[in-house]
Amino acid sequence: MRMKRKSESAALSGELGQLFLTHGPAVYRRALRLLCNHQDAEEATQEVFIRVLRGADGFAGQSQISTWLYRITTNYCLNQIRDRRRRRELFAEHAVDAHGPDPASPSDVALLRRLLAEADEEQARVAIYIYMDGMTHEEVAEVLSVSRRTVGNQLARFHSWAERRLGGQAAIPHSGRSEP
Amino acid sequence: MKEPLFEHLRKGRAGCPSDLALDRLIANELPAEQATRTREHAATCAACGEHLRLSRFEALPEVNAAVLLSRIRTRAVQPRVRWQRLREWLYRPGSERGTVLALVGAACVVALLVVGVRPPAGPPNGPQAGIRAKGGPLLHVHRLTKTGSQEVESGDPLAPGERIRFVVDLPQKGVVSILGIEQSGALYAAWPTEKRATAYPLTAGRGQILPGAVALDDSPGRETLYLILCPDRDPPHRCQSRGAKEPPRCQEGCILSPFVLNKIVGPGP
Fold it and tell me: Cβ distance B80 to B49 under 8 Å?
């Protein structure tokens, strides 16, 4: 389903219900995986669709609506992760790692989330798409509107930084998936 | 220490389509051939089939979709305050943002060199005396929750009895206190709450947590808190109320930054 242009945003309010039913569960589940908290995931879902309705991200119909929603959701959740880390530092409280729906490897999800809170923002986005969403480099390039090479470079930088950050105690395999 | 294998973060085989591909399948966004391929794969893959099954709100009992949609509609029509629009714009992906920010940064540097940095210090007797100007002190309020804390915005609904903590951004060192003005116009000390202390010396900096939590009283209504930053060691308790709708009058040189508490009775926000 392609979105209308920004100039037709007034009509979006009538389509919001269908848009929400079609894409809302995916937005919510992604947010839940990233934020590990049902309340935060609901808040994230609200915020994403509010931004859709307001056209805050300047969607011009040049990509699929799913792509657009993935971008908004990732940006919002990544900011929350980074803000949450700051709040956790501020109040010296340890966030409860309440896991999302049946993750494959809970401790690795928590570790990745901690890395995302500290990593370079562009590299963090790539890491989310590759490791959390299982995208290929081609898909990530499409979502971020960059080249495949850029995706590869960003991922390699994230690897290098993460290995240094972890003190060389763990090797993080590169994920070089191509189209299935 | 176990080596983290991030490739295991998604259940399923290496040949599974991405979550994006599966979500596009649901939204009818895939080209026909890819859609067929993906559908056929999901029919034989437990993990992908489960992903498709959970892509309906009916399969997410913890989510009340109708309530969520209602909140979206309600909030979407609320006017955003300027800083919210600015924050959304700053976090929006786009190459033009970097250029604009660079130009703004350069302009700020020029302004600093030409004008210099001085705290706004208007006459305390004026109607807007000492009220925070751009770059002045800023009060952040955090609501304490069971699992941590959550920042609230000025005017956001809070329940009587909720516990809050204060975080401040200060452009300069000084002594800090927080005064509140009730709807009746009565002035009260919101922070610090210790009997002996009336103000708290702090250095310049962002994200400074003020120690101690404060519990809201049980009277509903709107009250305005004022972060008061004074440049000297004299405690700012000499502030005087000028009614519920005016900032208090404090001694010369103090800067005030308001924050509205909106205490409501009933189901929380």
Answer: no
Inter-chain contact A133–B20, Cβ cutoff 8 Å?
yes
Does the distance separating the beta carbons of B20 and A170 come in below 8 Å?
no
Closest by CA to B254, choosing from B232, B225, B221, is B232
Q: What is the pLDDT of residues A74-83, one digit of tens each?
A: 999 999 988 8
A54, A75, A104 member nearest B9 (Cβ)? A104
**Cβ contacts (< 8 Å) between B3 and chain A: which residues?**
169-171
Q: Which of B193, B196, B201 is nearest to B228 (CA)?
A: B201
How many A×B Cβ pairs under 8 Å? 179
Question: What residues in A contact B24, CB-CB < 8 Å?
Answer: 64, 66
Interface ipTM: 0.80
AA identity, residue B209: I
- In the block, tokens 């085989």 appear at B13
Can you tell me the distance from the alpha carbon of A140 to that of A128, in angstroms, rounded to the nearest whole number? 10
Find all residues with CB under 8 Å of B29, minimum gap 6, and list them: A1, A64, A65, A66
Cis peptide leading into residue A103 (ω within 30°): no
| pLDDT one-digit tens code per residue, A42-56 | 999 999 999 888 774
Determine, for residues B24 and A66 on separate chains, whether the beta-carbon distance falls below 8 Å: yes
Residue found under tokens 């300027």: B82
Instruction: Write down the pTM of the prediction.
Output: 0.54
Residue from the list B2, B24, B148 with its beta carbon closest to the beta carbon of A93: B148
Q: What is the pLDDT of residues B20-48, one digit of tens each?
A: 999 999 999 999 999 999 999 999 999 99
Task: State whether B60 and A29 contact (CB < 8 Å).
Answer: yes
> In whole angstroms, what is the distance from residue A177 CA to residue B214 CA?
52
Show residues of chain A in contact with B57, CB under 8 Å. Answer: 21, 24-25
The rounded distance, in Å, linking the Cα atoms of B227 and B202 is 13
**Can you read off the two tokens belonging to residue B62?**
């913890």
| Burial bucket for residue B202 (CB in 10 Å: 0-12, 13-18, 19+) | middle
Of A54, A111, A134, the CB nearest to B4: A111
Contact assignment for A108 to B57 by CB distance below 8 Å: no
DSSP string, A62-131: SS-HHHHHHHHHHHHHHHHHHHHHHHHHHHT-PPP----SS-S-HHHHHHHHHHHHHS-HHHHHHHIIII
The reply to whether residue B9 touches residue A25, judged by beta carbons under 8 angstroms, is no
**Block residue for tokens 């709708």:** B245
